[in-house]
Specification:
- By secondary structure, the protein is mainly alpha-helical.
- The chain has 20 helices and no strands.
- It is globular, with a radius of gyration of 23 Å.
């Protein structure tokens, strides 16, 4: 028994997982059941995780950086003259923002189901080529209708990336490691916000080159960059741990084994997670209470996220700064938010808790928007409004990876998790359609209505966090009282997160 406790399949608090979440222990002389004949006693958990981080996270971060850059650069293009050049009205511009989210949400579930079937190394770069092409063509639209159609197709092509990458993380990392990795690649969105301002500032200087306005070059050059990176991604994205050539066979066995048994390891009865596809798992995802309660939490974070990413340059410009200064003033906000997202995620993974960190970050968002509303109503203090936005964004970006990770932690069964995460993220991104209309041109430069609507969604989201935490704790308590062995391992595997052996992360 003593040797079992020192098996590399278990960890201590000094490793990458908290001691309260030990990995399934097996005799080091006995191979994991998934890999008969393979000795995993020499596997170093820290070394394996570092290898995975170095091979997976940089490319994922780059993909998401480009996705967020291409999705939000219309905000930068606007202050460089897009609306005036295409003779658009304020409501028409908002419609171009809104329609993106309708197709973006509609195609997320089928995309996530295809990801595992078609292999990530094929599917993710393919959709990236598609949206890079659409982005490039946005640079040559001539009127409102052309821009509207381009945004519709941008939503179709980008739909699979974020839910796909978020699900992809869960195929490699355990529940108590996931948020740190989600934050590392999601912080690329923060960097994208900063990089977008810097890039737009530089590209706008090309105004008149080739007979094109500066805002057109923003779309064209960023779209071409996306296509180039997508071609590289075909050769640099790894599919699954089972086929990862950068891992040795014992390391692959160790990674696969701990992933399959992670959901039940606190129950005293080890149950493997279901890996096969059934339409029943998709139906269960569509009817799972936690996804819909979690949706309000998601909206409470994503409404402010999209509101700031789409309108931040405009809001800053209308505070009295020039266009170029407005682009540059977005940079420190996003860089700070990226750093905070990674720090908060690290503490969340170490503690094995999600809700306290999400709740705290959402309180920070609340404080930021209260400052924005108060300062805007007072008038004449643009620096205070900027500070309020700064504080809000510093709450938004750490909260978002926690929100996505928390729901993914509590969905069991590979295909149910795939569908459930896509539903959660897909319907959650309808917040983008709503937030696109919060900051109306007629409300500038104070935008009190937009800030107030963001604040209302954050308040509802805070209530959802409390509701999720309470219900998860209640169900875990009931399952602790249930006798082991009531269902067979096969039956518990089929039940997924509804099995009495499954424990929800709080």
């Amino acid at each position: 028994m003593a040797s079992m406790m020192r098996n590399p399949l278990t960890t201590t608090h000094n490793d990458s997982y908290p001691e309260k979440f030990p990995l399934p222990a097996t005799d080091p002389k006995e191979p994991p059941p998934d890999y008969p004949g393979v000795d995993t006693s020499g596997v170093d958990p820290k070394k394996v995780l570092l290898k995975m981080d170095l091979h997976l996270i940089p490319m994922l971060a780059l993909l998401y950086l480009l996705s967020f850059l291409d999705r939000g650069n219309i905000g930068n293009a606007r202050i460089e003259g897009l609306v005036e050049s295409l003779n658009m009205t304020g409501p028409q511009y908002n419609w171009c923002l809104t329609v993106f989210f309708f197709t973006y949400c509609a195609f997320e579930v089928p995309s996530n189901l295809l990801l595992k079937r078609l292999r990530p190394s094929i599917w993710l770069p393919s959709i990236m080529v598609a949206w890079g092409t659409v982005m490039t063509l946005m640079g040559i639209v001539q009127d409102f209708k052309g821009l509207l159609i381009a945004r519709i197709f941008l939503g179709v092509t980008e739909a699979g990336l974020y839910p796909g990458v978020a699900y992809y993380i869960t195929m490699w990392y355990c529940r108590t490691e996931a948020q740190f990795r989600q934050a590392m690649f999601f912080s690329a969105a923060s960097v994208a916000g900063a990089f977008s301002g810097l890039l737009a500032f530089a590209i706008a200087k090309m105004d008149g080159v080739g007979g094109y306005e500066g805002w057109r070059w923003i779309f064209i050059l960023e779209g071409i960059l996306t296509v180039v990176v997508a071609i590289i991604a075909f050769f640099t994205i790894y599919d699954f741990p089972e086929t990862a050539k950068f891992l040795t066979e014992p390391e692959r066995a160790w990674v696969v084994h701990r992933l399959r048994y992670q959901g039940s390891k606190d129950s005293g009865q080890m149950v493997a997670e279901s890996e096969h596809f059934k339409w029943r798992y998709v139906r269960e995802a569509f009817t799972d209470w936690q996804i819909y309660l979690g949706l309000w939490m998601y909206w409470g974070i994503v409404c402010p996220l999209y509101g700031t990413s789409l309108f931040l340059p405009t809001i800053i410009r209308e505070l009295g700064y020039t266009s170029s200064t407005a682009q540059l003033l977005t940079v420190p906000i996003y860089i700070t938010a990226a750093i905070l997202a990674v720090i908060v995620a690290w503490f969340s993974d170490r503690s094995g808790q999600r809700s306290p960190y999400i709740f705290t970050c959402m309180c920070v968002i609340t404080i930021g928007f209260i400052i924005c509303i108060s300062a805007s109503a007072h008038g004449g203090v643009p620096g205070v409004v900027y500070a309020g936005i700064f504080i809000a964004v510093c709450g938004i970006y750490p909260a978002f990876p926690g929100n996505v990770t928390w729901i993914s932690n509590n969905l069991a069964g590979s295909y149910k998790r795939s569908a459930g995460m896509a539903i959660h993220i897909g319907m959650g991104n309808l917040a983008g359609a709503m937030a696109s209309n919060f900051y109306r041109s007629s409300d500038g430069p104070k935008y009190i209505l937009g800030h107030a609507l963001e604040l209302a969604f954050v308040a509802v989201g805070l209530c959802a966090v409390v509701g999720l935490r309470w219900n998860y704790g209640r169900i875990n308590g009931k399952r602790e009282q249930m006798p082991l062995g009531e269902y067979s391992d096969a039956e518990n595997s089929e039940k997924g997160d509804r099995a009495p052996t499954f424990r929800y992360v709080l």
